[in-house]
Every structure is written in structure tokens, then in C-alpha cells.
Amino acid sequence: MNLEFNYHNMNKIFFPLFLALSMALSVSAADYQLELAVPFTDNMILQRESKVPIWGFDAPGNQVTVEFAGQTKTAVADKNGDWMVKLDPLKASREERGLEVKNNRGKSISLKGVLVGEVWFSSGQSNMVWTAGKSMCNQLVREIAASKEDIPIREININTVSALYPQKKATSEGGWKKASGASGFSALSLSFAYELYKELN
């Protein structure tokens, strides 16, 4: 095997690599845009009586403002394009309200149907993805569907992935879903949420 190299040949190798890397970095920088992290979608629930972090992504140095329930909070995207604000503690509310996010470049995001209440994480093995409509919770699903009032139970399912390193951005199919779609909720999560709803209502 011939391992002999010379400086002239190495220049030929490194220049195209450097050029390709520079182009990739410039495309990445141009791709920045105002964005909310996955937990923040229409119909979400924010945790009551606690400082609530709202975070997302934008071009480094951009100023981002979040407005909700009479509060206005501002942050600046860091060198990695990350930003976060924290809302002051909120009282529980079944009133559907809007949340506005905007930056100093004229870009904005508007969310609707936002509630304030209890937020719980459900995590486990295959039993956690057993859907309510195909389980012993089927009767509960029918009760919720037949209710004359909008039951304020909602669910977001965060996709799981196998990765060699922590992932910066999570993904979700469809974001937060209202109780009208409870047949597709996790059976265990729905039964717990309904008991909590009855206790707190």
C-alpha cells in the first residue's frame, strides 16, 4: 500500500473539503427562522402556579418577545440560535387564549386555544402506547365524547428516536390534541387525567 503524500496533493484534497464545509455552514446560517420548540402548539396546556419556560430557535442575536395573559417577556437568541423566556406563575384557566411570539425582524407566530392547568408526563414501555379506544377505557372515551361540555383534557405525544447524542429538537405528530380525539390517547394517561380532572373540577 502506498502511503506517500506530498503537500501539493494535500492542498488538492483539503481545498474542496474546506470549500464544501464553508458552503454547508453558510446554508445552515441562512436556514435560521423564528421557531417554537415542539411542546408549544395550538391547544397546549401551560402549567399553573409555576414559572413557565417558553423556548425556541431563531437567528443568533435576534430579539424574541412572547406575549400571553397580559404578560410580555423578551429574550435574545444566543450564538447557537436558542432562546427562552419564563412567564410568571399563572392561575388555572379553562379560557382558551392566544399566545403571540415575534422577533425584531418582523416574523411572528400565533398560537390559539391555550389553557392553564395541570401538566403531567407519562412515560413507560409498550403499555403507554395502548390507545384508549382499544382498551378498557373505551367506555370513558364514549362518556367524554357524549359530554355537553368541552372536557379540558389534552395530550401531546412526543416522538421517540434512537440517537448517539442528545437531540436538540423533538418532533410530534399533530401537536396537542383535544379530548374529542381521546380514543387515540394513551389509555393509562387518559384514565389518570380524567381522575385528576374530577378531583380538581
TrEMBL record:
One of the protein's GO biological processes: carbohydrate metabolic process
Coiled coil: none
GO terms for MF: sialate O-acetylesterase activity
InterPro entries from the UniProt entry: SGNH_hydro_sf, SIAE
Protein name: Sialate O-acetylesterase domain-containing protein
